[in-house]
Amino acid sequence: MKKNSKLLSILPYAVILVCFLIIPTSIDKMFWYAAFISILAKMIASVGLRMVSLGGDMSFAMGAFMGLGAYGAAIMVTKWSFPFWAAIILAAVFAAIVAVLTGIPFARLRSIYYCMTTMFLGIFLIYIFQSFDWTGANTGIKQIPKLFGGKPAINYWYFLALAVVCIFCMWRFEKSRIGNTLKAIAQSHEVAASMGVNERFYRLMAIGVAAFFCGVAGASYALYYGSVVGSTYGMTLDLWIIMFFMVGGKDDFFGPIIGAALLGVVNEGSRTFGSYAPFLACAVLLLVAYLLPGGLASIPRTIKKAIDDKKMKQVDISAFSSGSDGKEA
Predict the structure, then answer these.
(1) No. of helices (H) and no. of strands (E), the chain
(2) Tens digits of per-residue pLDDT, 27-39?
(3) Residue 220 DSSP one-character state
(4) What whole-number distance in Å separates Cα of residue 317 and Cα of residue 314?
């Protein structure tokens, strides 16, 4: 029984992986290669947001951290002639350092106040990106040497492998002692602090880990795309990342993955509707929020609960019938 339940829980994620392995290669169109690469980059950032949420926080700066990685890698490659791999890693480390340093003064904040602070931080970083000549000001950085020569198929397989590695690393982080400590902090930071847990340290560690992987995704995407513009990493990107997180299910590690896979395909596939495309994604969000408050990741649990409830009702009816028969006798 436990084995069947485990297989049922793994099945949706296996289906998603198979879709990412088969669909782009079977369609073999430049548009869908680019679309799936964009989805995979945002998927990494959305799982990064879950790392922040482990400590009970919600950040509106994931897009800005991707921008830090993108601009860092672009500057290193174009101005300092860094190798691609070194630029990606160093840009991600830079994003993590900035996230931790800017997070120190606000580590005492929680709830809506922390959300507002991260939103203002994201806006401030975008303003920085667009204010200096060495970042290309409003026009951004152009003519960046492209990763793998800009070949879409090779880039797609790179991003798929990158997403698998990054998501696995974050899964291990969540399942570690640090992840369990963060969950305890989310339950009650006061109780955790009374037991000697330095909750600010752990929350800053979570934002640093999330920013690192966002930086990896942003840097890789900048080198794939060949240009960086500050507005790309603004509030719109943050809202999409949060939508992936919420639609997939904020209480399940694989929720952001499912949300990114579904809403990402809906968003990219509905571009033919022009300005009406965001309304389709909003409709999906509202339907999931109303019908599945736990997100799409809760579907296996919901089905299992419905089956168990039906069995319990049958047992109760059988017990009641047996009791009635005994009294009549």
Answers:
(1) 13, 0
(2) 667 778 888 899 9
(3) H
(4) 5
The pair of structure tokens assigned to 325 is 């028969």
Q: Which amino acid is at 249?
A: G
Listed residue (329, 261, 322, 323) closest to 295, CA to CA:
261
Sequence ranges of the domains in the chain: 2-322
In eight-state DSSP terms, residue 81 is -
Tokens of 96: 């993590």
Report d(CA 229, CA 89) in Å as an integer.
20
Task: Tell me the sheet residues that pair with 228.
Answer: 141
pLDDT at 124 exceeding the cut of 70:
yes
pLDDT for 328 equals 53
Confidence (pTM): 0.89
Which residue, 203, 196, 195, 211, is CA-closest to 178? Answer: 203
Q: Which two tokens stand for residue 158?
A: 């790179």
Report d(CA 278, CA 146) in Å as an integer: 30
Beta-strand runs (E) in 9-120: none
Token look-up 């047992």 returns 315
What DSSP character marks residue 136?
Answer: T
Rounded CA separation 117/102 (Å):
10
Find out whether 125 and 238 touch, Cβ atoms under 8 Å: no
- In DSSP notation, 171-217 reads HHHHHSHHHHHHHHHHH-HHHHHHTT--HHHHHHHHHHHHHHHHHHH
